[in-house]
Each structure stands twice: as C-alpha cells, then as structure tokens.
C-alpha cells in the first residue's frame, strides 16, 4: 500500500497463535508426489475484504474468527502443524499439541476504506494486508503452515491469508475457508470433514535433500531457489456473464459440424486469454507459446479421491504451439488444443507423470511453466463469495503477490456473476492488452 507521510500505513498491533480447541495428540502424514514439486514455491496468498455493516466491531469480529478457527482446526489439524523431514529426507506434515498452531496477526489501517482497495488494477497495493510475502513453502519446517492477518480498515476488515502450498491446493483452501465460515455462523460441525489420508492416492517415499533458506526473505543460500521475476504489472479484468457467453459462442463458432464436443466455458475463456496475450506479446510467428493449466486430479486418479481430499491433488497440464499458428487460425484452434490436453490427462497419464518424477524429482521453478506461457490457476468454480463469517459476503477476493510471473492468470467467480481474470504481465504487454478492443469485447 502506498504510504504517503504515514497515510495508509498498515501497523501491526498484535500477534497470537490459535490451536485446535481439543487435544489431538501427535498426528503425521508424509507429503506425496502431488505435494512435493511445490515445496520451493512461495506460500499461496489470498485476500478477502469485508465491509463493516451496522458499525464496526473489529475486536468482536477478530474474537469470533479466532474462536471459529480453534474449532475448525480440530478437523483441519494439518494447517496447525509444521513440516518435518525424517532421517531419510522424506517430508511430512506433522501436528502436535505442543506446536504453536496458526499465526494470527492483527493490524490497523484506519485511514483506508474498503472502496479504496476494491480497484481492478491489481494486487501490488494490497501486499501489506497479506502475511508471508516472498516466504518459501520450505520454511514450513520453521514457520506455521497458515498465517492469517486481520486488518482493521476505516469501514471494514481485510483478511489476508498465507497457506503453505506444499500441503494444500485451491480446492482444499476453499474447503477450509467455507468450513471455517460455517462454524462462525453457528454450525456445531462442518458439513464435510477433510479427507486427510493423502497416502491413499500415492504412497511412494520420495527423498528430497533440501534445507530451509538462511535468508528467509529471498531464499538465498538455499538448495531450493526460485527464479527472480522481472518487473510486472497486475490487472484484474472483469468479464460479465454476457461477455463470457459471447466468448464461448465465438470460440465454438469454429467447431466443425461433425459432432465434435463443444468447448466448455473454461476452455473458451482460456483460449481467448491465450490468443490475445500471445498477440500483445508481439512474438515472431515461429516463437513457441505454451498454455498451462493446473488441473484438479481428484476425479481423474484411479481410484478417484473425494472432493474433500485435503492436500495437493493437481498437476500442470501443458500444450504448445507456434505463435503464428495460434494467431492465424480461429480461436477454436487454441481451445481444441487445450481441450485435448485436458482430456488426455487421465489416470494412466497421471501415473506415468508420477513415476517419471519419482525417478528424478524436480522442484518447480517459475521458468518451468513454459516459454511465453499463459498459466491458469484457481477456478471460477470455487464459491469464494460464499465465505461469509456472519458479517456479510466479501466485497472482493484476490490473490496476493506471491507466485506471480509473466503470464500467470488466476480465475475467480465475479461478485455479480461472470468471471474475474487476474493477469500478470510486463508493463508494455499489459498496456497493449488494455487497449485490445477484441480482448475486451468492445464494439468498434
């Protein structure tokens, strides 16, 4: 946040820890092949902004959230634990009653209103509202696996969260958030407890000889290093339901009349984004461009896992073509490539990917997303605006500044329908995308 002569400054006022209300003893579960590639990513950050209705009782809101957190952690106890390595270098997530639990930070930015923060530009001005900026997941050996920052605003509350991405994906994140909200709204139990036995999906012991970084800010002197990202601009583009329908119609217009499967909303929007980002990058026709989606594998693995599976059960799915080919063909060309890549990622392909990785474990870095990539994370299927703790639904839901790179895209449901598209690009490319009338569906 811009801090002009102290204005808009976020001040930390208190730090505490919240543990499960009940004694649970020691519980542990090894991290599996789906978890480990992300151990050198940064903590996954989310931000939810709430307006204070009928006056603001910040202390009351914080007390309610902490009380509910202690209850929900009885089921989601792994989030209250730490990472550990055994003598063989196999990582596991461990909860013990003696551990600190979840870090809860209280802060104040009383000169800032919710409306000041609900801009479409991006998240760079929001980073002070979210904890653990540039903190590697590997530091979960020393830090809590979840940190929550609750910031008092002029007319509301900002909830910033940092989840250790080595232990959970987006589906598990929003399952936890909705369960926490249920408890805060008076439910004695959560609707669906998490399925915590991650070794049921994969039980191969993978040894990683990694140590936590000596410099926790940038990961220097660590065996797990992340690439330094170039300067980027972040922007949120809001596509209404009508705009999404138009995009889907345009992409499907090129579908051959041979009974081919229509392109889904996700495939159509992804192709639209891929095409126009590639165009605004001004690549040569022969330059490769990669589309990457982090696909949920819960229903793809054999046997299938329940939706409540807690952990990472995603894999990156790639497709690649020359920029000239992507742009010379109708938008259905890119959508068809995306569709085929996703459909081909079945149980057999997942198993082969896992076996290949286990033979030669590779820790992901940003550059691994692919050259000239568009990489899509999160999902508009997540009911993020249903996370109501008893003081109304959030005004906006956004990702933090961690794990962003050139071409990273996060998709969220729009508050009033449609889909919000968060994109990170170099400033010159973003400027051209903002002027791309066809991308924005502006009439000439």
Structure explained in plain terms:
By secondary structure, the protein is α+β, with helices and mostly antiparallel strands. The chain has 2 domains: 11-200, 2-Layer Sandwich (Chloramphenicol Acetyltransferase), CATH 3.30.559; 233-435, Chloramphenicol acetyltransferase-like domain (Chloramphenicol Acetyltransferase, 2-Layer Sandwich), CATH 3.30.559.10. 23% of the residues lie in helices and 23% in strands. It contains 9 helices and 15 strands. The strands form 3 sheets. Strands 1-6-7-8-3-13 form a 6-stranded mixed beta sheet, with helices on one face. A hairpin with a 5-residue loop joins strand 14 (408-413) and strand 15. Helix 1 crosses helix 3. The longest helix has 16 residues, at 265-280. The two termini are 37 Å apart. This is BAHD acyltransferase. Belongs to the plant acyltransferase family. Pfam families: Transferase (PF02458).
Draw up the topology in text:
Elements: E1 11-18, E2 27-30, E3 44-51, H1 58-72, E4 82-85, E5 91-95, E6 102-109, H2 114-117, E7 146-153, E8 156-163, H3 170-184, E9 233-239, H4 241-252, H5 265-280, E10 288-296, E11 314-322, H6 323-328, H7 331-344, H8 347-359, E12 374-378, E13 396-399, E14 408-413, E15 419-425, H9 427-434
Parallel strand pairs: 6-7, 10-12, 12-14
Antiparallel strand pairs: 1-6, 2-5, 3-8, 3-13, 4-5, 7-8, 9-15, 10-11, 14-15
Helix pairs in contact: 1-3, 4-5, 5-7
């Amino acid at each position: 946040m811009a801090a002009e002569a102290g204005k808009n400054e976020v001040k930390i006022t208190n730090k505490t820890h919240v543990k499960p209300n009940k004694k649970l003893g020691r519980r542990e579960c090894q991290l599996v092949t789906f978890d480990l590639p992300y151990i050198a990513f940064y903590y996954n950050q989310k931000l939810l902004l709430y307006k204070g209705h009928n006056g603001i009782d910040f202390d009351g809101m914080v007390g309610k959230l902490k009380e509910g957190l202690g209850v929900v952690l009885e089921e989601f106890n792994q989030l209250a634990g730490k990472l550990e390595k055994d003598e063989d270098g196999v990582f596991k997530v461990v909860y013990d009653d003696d551990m600190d639990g979840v870090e809860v930070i209280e802060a104040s930015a009383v000169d800032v209103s919710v409306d000041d923060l609900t801009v479409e530009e991006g998240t760079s001005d929001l980073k002070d509202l979210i904890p653990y900026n540039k903190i590697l997941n590997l530091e979960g050996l020393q830090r809590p696996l979840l940190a929550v920052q609750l910031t008092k605003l002029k007319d509301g509350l900002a909830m910033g969260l940092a989840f250790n991405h080595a232990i959970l994906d987006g589906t598990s994140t929003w399952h936890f958030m909705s369960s926490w909200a249920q408890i805060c709204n008076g439910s004695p139990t959560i609707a669906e407890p998490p399925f915590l036995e991650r070794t049921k999906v994969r039980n191969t012991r993978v040894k990683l000889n990694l140590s936590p970084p000596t410099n926790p800010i940038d990961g220097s002197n660590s065996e797990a290093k992340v690439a330094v990202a170039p300067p980027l601009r972040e922007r949120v583009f809001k596509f209404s339901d009508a705009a999404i329908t138009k995009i889907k119609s345009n992409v499907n217009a090129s579908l051959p009349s041979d009974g081919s499967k229509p392109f889904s909303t996700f495939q159509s929007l992804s192709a639209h984004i891929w095409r126009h980002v590639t165009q605004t990058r001004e690549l040569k026709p022969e330059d490769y461009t990669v589309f990457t989606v982090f696909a949920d594998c819960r229903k793809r693995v054999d046997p299938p896992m329940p939706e409540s599976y807690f952990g990472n059960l995603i894999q990156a799915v790639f497709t690649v073509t020359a920029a000239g080919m992507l742009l010379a063909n109708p938008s259905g060309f890119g959508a068809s490539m995306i569709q085929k890549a996703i459909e081909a990622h079945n149980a057999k392909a997942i198993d082969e990917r896992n076996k290949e990785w286990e033979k030669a474990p590779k820790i992901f870095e940003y550059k691994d997303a692919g050259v000239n990539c568009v990489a899509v994370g999160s999902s508009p299927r997540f009911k993020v605006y249903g996370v109501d703790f008893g003081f109304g639904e959030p005004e906006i839901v956004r990702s933090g500044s961690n794990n962003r790179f050139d071409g990273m895209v996060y998709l969220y449901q729009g508050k009033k329908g449609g889909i919000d598209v968060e994109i990170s690009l170099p400033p010159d490319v973003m400027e051209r995308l903002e002027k791309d009338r066809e991308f924005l569906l502006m009439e000439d």
